[in-house]
Design brief:
- By secondary structure, the chain is mainly α.
- The protein contains five helices and no strands.
- α3 packs antiparallel against α4.
- This is YlbF family regulator.
- It comes from Alkaliphilus flagellatus.
Length: about 110
């Protein structure tokens, strides 16, 4: 098994990943809500890929987030958002730790 596959296996066994997966599954029970969330996520990806500058992307994302405020009022969506935030924080922590460890190996 490759290193990447091993890392992914460790990640999918975390509480943060399990909570995110459960939150997404909960939204799947509401087809209209699922469709709205997917449309929002698609718009986010489009903005990130087509924005000509970080400032433009930030402005466009702010407008999109204002639209998303109504959607976030659903408890299921709010749960998914919070689970996604916790998952992203965990992943950021993993990336930081990897970088720090690699940097220590590169020191003379």
């Amino acid at each position: 098994m490759g290193i990447g596959r091993q890392l992914v296996q460790q990640v999918v066994n975390t509480r943060e990943f399990i909570e995110l997966k459960e939150a997404r599954s909960n939204i799947d029970r509401y087809p209209q809500l699922k469709q709205e969330v997917e449309a929002f996520q698609k718009k986010q990806m489009e903005i990130m890929s087509r924005a000509s500058s970080p400032q433009e992307a930030e402005q466009m994302l702010m407008r999109l987030n204002n639209e998303f405020t109504n959607l976030a009022q659903y408890p299921e969506v709010n749960r998914m958002i919070k689970a996604g935030e916790r998952f992203n924080e965990m992943m950021l922590s993993i990336y930081k730790e990897i970088n720090e460890i690699l940097a220590s190996y590169l020191q003379y």
